[in-house]
Design brief:
single chain, 335 residues, alpha+beta, 60s Ribosomal Protein L30, Chain: A, Phosphoribosyl-aminoimidazole Synthetase, Chain A, domain 2, 6-stranded mixed β-sheet
Length: 335
């Protein structure tokens, strides 16, 4: 019997990508000055500012907020909001500079907004990014609960973009550990919890399920910025999980032959939901939140600089297309 899938939880990746493609086809207008760069499928939108590039990206915390609501713990979701945006900027070699947040709610709760603010401020400090504005919208007829998202702005160091075009055969893939689930796959997790009548107080490896699920997303910015001259490509292992490698290039194959050991929470999700490996590795980060692709001559330097994230050489680049996870004989050829 086929295991539980993300699509069954209401998130069909293929359908979403097809719908987004149709939306993007409608966005044809271009400015004559400071035009945008056509980086199809990448993490952020870039535009030419003369001697450097600017970048914009937008993302939110997603249905992890429902877990926050159930736990009545709101002081870390702001970190997630910052992380999901700045990690998408740094992938392209952009230094995050500023950000605006957007909160949509069905009603105002001062203590909740205060706690969200604490998380946003903490995330800002970790990422060295300033929140310069935002919007709080009350929409009781449209929103049930609270939604939190943001838009971040970054700039390049000179005119170099790290878009994966410099990736070459023989490059190493260095994985950086995640802090856990981060902010993706929560619709599937919540379906598993509901279907199996699981309590958020259930203990896993000495911690409650709720505590593990509310753990904020890692922010990699400060450790990555000094390495930009050494890397040929980077991947934020976010929505779509290991499929994100395919966004970097269709000219090479990403071979993953020595996975980072996933945290216990992923084993729990897989077992309780009867989720197949193919689904796990296209939904969750499975212990690896970020990846660097670089020439092997920089291996030691990169491993040393990213030691806070328990880095590990997880694979290499070879001829072909897509990403191949050897241990499970899984191959994804498109994002």
């Amino acid at each position: 019997m086929k295991g539980t899938t993300y699509a069954q939880a209401g998130v069909d990746i293929e359908s979403k990508n097809n719908a987004v493609s149709k939306l993007i086809k409608q966005l044809t207008y271009k400015r004559s000055t400071n035009p945008s760069l056509n980086l199809k499928g990448h993490y952020a939108g870039l535009f030419d500012l003369g001697g450097f590039y600017g970048a914009l990206t937008t993302d939110g915390v997603g249905t992890k907020l429902i877990i926050a609501q159930e736990l009545n713990k709101w002081d870390t979701v702001g970190i997630d909001c910052i992380a999901m945006n700045v990690n998408d900027l740094i992938v392209l070699g952009m230094e995050p500079i500023s950000m605006v947040d957007y909160i949509a709610a069905d009603k105002i709760n001062e203590s909740i907004l205060e706690d969200i603010g604490k998380g946003l401020n903490e995330g800002s400090k970790i990422a060295n990014i300033e929140i310069v504005g935002g919007e709080t919208a009350l929409m009781p007829d449209m929103v049930k609960g609270i939604d939190l998202s943001g838009t971040a702005f970054g700039i390049s160091k000179g005119k170099r973009i790290i878009d994966g075009s410099e990736i070459s055969e023989g490059n190493l893939i260095i994985g950086l550990s995640s802090s856990g689930v981060h902010s993706n796959g929560y619709s599937l997790i919540r379906k598993i919890i509901k279907d199996n009548n699981i309590s958020l107080n259930e203990k896993i490896d000495g911690k409650t399920l709720g505590d593990l699920l509310i753990t904020p997303t890692k922010i990699y910015v400060r450790d990555i910025l000094p390495l930009l001259d050494m890397v040929n490509g980077m991947a934020h292992i976010t929505g779509g999980s290991f499929r994100n490698f395919v966004r970097l290039t269709n000219k090479h194959s990403f071979v993953i032959n020595d996975l980072i050991t996933p945290q216990k929470i992923f084993e729990y999700i897989k077992k309780e939901g009867n989720v197949e490996d193919t689904e796990m590795y296209q939904t969750f980060n499975m212990g690896m939140g970020f990846a660097i692709i670089a020439n092997e001559k920089y291996e030691k330097e990169i491993l040393k600089a990213t030691h806070n994230h328990n880095p590990k050489v997880v694979g290499y680049i070879e001829k072909g297309k897509g990403v191949y996870i050897k241990e499970y004989n899984i191959k994804y050829e498109k994002y």
